[in-house]
Structure formats: structure tokens, C-alpha cells
Amino acid sequence: MFNDIGPLELVTLVVLAVLIFGPDKLPKLIQDVTRTIRKIREFSESAKQDIRQELGPEFKDFEFEDLNPKTFIRKQLDNDELGLKEIRNGFDLKKEMAEVTDAVHSRESDTPSPAAPPSTGSTGGRVDMTKKPEPDERPPYDLDAT
């Protein structure tokens, strides 16, 4: 519950509590706080039990932590009934992407597309979009843009 509170912070909280409430009222205050926390825990446990009873026997092993999406996904990935590990091991995304990239680059360099303008100079058929067109020069016609 207090995983992120160090010993120095805990001592500081105790000293502040003694200064604010006084040493004579502090034990009574601690008892009241622990009693309240205990009642809240009992209430939440009884609510969980009521929900489990209402869901029926098919959900007897239902855990409320499973409602967290991260926990649910982790639990499903650990449970290998669907064969997800085989699918994951058989699919290499980097290899597939490299093959697609090579295929696209080889097609671009081998055969110019019919919609591309004729190759001009060293740009390899590409239009330099940073260069402003000459006033008499028409911009290239793009079939995909229309």
C-alpha cells in the first residue's frame, strides 16, 4: 500500500501527526482510521461476493483484476490455447517489411509508371516540390490527386 513512501517520509508524517493532533489524541485517531479502513475493506469484499453470486456458477473464478485491459491481455497471451505463440514466432514483421520495401523500390526503378512524367535529368522522374515552377511552365499533372 505504501510502496513509494520511504523511511524519512514516514518519520516526517509521524512527527507532523504528533504536532497537529498531539500525543494524547493520536492513539484514538489511529484507532478510528484503522477501524474506517477495515470497514471499507469489508464493504468492498462483500460487494465483490455479491457480484460473484449474481453472476452465477460459470463465473466462480472471476477476478476483478481481469477487468484491467493490461492484465486481461497478459493473461490471454500466457494462456496458449489459441496457438498465439506459434503465430507470433512464424511471423517476422521486419522481414516482411524489408521484402515489401525491396519490391516497391525495384518496381520504381525498373518500370516507370504510366502516370509519371518523363524522366528529366538526374532526379529519376521525380519532381522537385521545393523548386518554384517557372511562370510559363505548367505544374505536373497528377492522376491520383484528381
List the helices and strands and how they pair.
Elements: H1 7-21, H2 26-55, H3 69-78, H4 84-90, H5 93-110
Describe this entry's structure for a reader.
This protein is an all-alpha fold and 146 residues long. It has 2 domains: 1-62; 63-110, no CATH class. The chain is built from 5 helices and no strands. It has helices at 7-21, 26-55, 69-78, 84-90, 93-110. The protein is elongated and about 95 Å long.
Descriptive labels:
146 residues, mainly alpha, 2 domains, 0% strand
Output the helix-strand order.
HHHHH
Instruction: Please estimate the helix content.
Output: 40-55%
The figure for the number of domains is 2
The overall average pLDDT, rounded, is: 77
How many β-strand stretches? 0
Name the structural class: mainly alpha
Number of helices: 5
Q: Any low-confidence stretches, pLDDT <50, length ≥5?
A: 116-122
Strand content is under 5%
Q: Separation of termini?
A: 61 Å
The coarse silhouette is elongated
Let me know the largest β-sheet: none
Q: Taking Cα atoms only, what radius of gyration do you get, to the nearest Å? A: 34 Å
Membrane topology: Single-pass membrane protein
Family: Belongs to the TatB family.
Protein name: Sec-independent protein translocase protein TatB
Organism: Streptomyces doudnae
